[in-house]
Design brief:
Layout lengths: L1 H7 L5 H4 L4 H30 L3 H14 L5 H9 L3 H18 L2 H25 L21 H20 L2 H24 L5 H34 L2
């Protein structure tokens, strides 16, 4: 299969893809397929939101959360939601990227920065495009500005914390890998839920944030996995 790919690829791409293993090629195709699915799912949700078809669902879910989760969770939820603000994410990004760079993981540092910046930029553009107002179903003293769709916290949670988890889990082994993956996934989910608990986002805002971020993270992650595969082959080949 890889021999056939080498034959049909332009000469300028052969040095890159000619060294790619079958597993790396499969990951590349899978990543592109997942990206296509994410685009389709996000477009479908965006259309439903624009047409107002999700209004009842959004309202009922938010009110259910407000009615069934205790008030004492507000403190922890505020602390968790703070992890999604740029003023917190950017310093963490700087420290993490610097640590990776000093450790010799230079590409990991670049990927983390690109993933986070891409998520922030994508969120800003999409919010300006859709201009969805924030929910005002209940008051708890917590306020948020700018537009609502998609959730910037959900997008950045995946773009930064998701990519950070991917990098650390990829380099870990055994039980530690699964522990890192579980903790990272839990943090991403909790950041999204905190926005619903505080009443500053609709459920579809958070879901859209979770969908828009993977589009960028998958693309960056596929390039990362392919590069590691090519580098491994180069080392084996001397």
């Amino acid at each position: 299969m890889m021999g056939r790919l080498r034959e049909i690829m332009p000469g300028s791409l052969t040095p890159i893809f000619g060294r790619m293993t079958l597993a790396a090629a499969v990951w590349l195709v899978a990543g592109l397929g997942l990206s296509a699915f994410v685009i389709w799912a996000f477009a479908g949700m965006a259309e439903e939101v624009v047409e107002g078809d999700t209004r009842r669902f959004d309202r009922e879910v938010l009110l259910w959360i407000h009615a069934h989760f205790p008030p004492w969770l507000e403190g922890p939820m505020r602390a968790i939601t703070a992890l999604g603000y740029y003023r917190v994410v950017l310093p963490l990004l700087f420290v993490s990227a610097a640590a990776f760079y000093l450790r010799g993981w230079r590409l990991s540092a670049v990927l983390l920065a690109v993933s986070t910046a891409g998520g922030m930029f994508l969120t800003t553009v999409l919010k300006a495009v859709f201009q969805r107002s924030r929910p005002e179903l209940f008051q708890n003293g917590y306020e948020a500005g700018f537009y609502s769709f998609p959730s910037g916290h959900a997008t950045v949670a995946v773009g930064f914390y998701g990519m950070l988890t991917l990098i650390l889990a990829y380099r870990a082994r055994g039980a530690l890998r699964w522990t890192i993956a579980a903790l990272g996934a839990a943090l991403v989910v909790l950041i999204g839920f905190s926005r619903l608990y505080l009443g500053v986002h609709y459920p579809t805002d958070v879901l859209a944030g979770y969908l828009s971020a993977p589009l960028w993270v998958v693309f960056v992650g596929v390039l990362y996995a392919a590069w590691l595969s090519v580098r491994g082959l180069r080392r084996k080949g001397g």
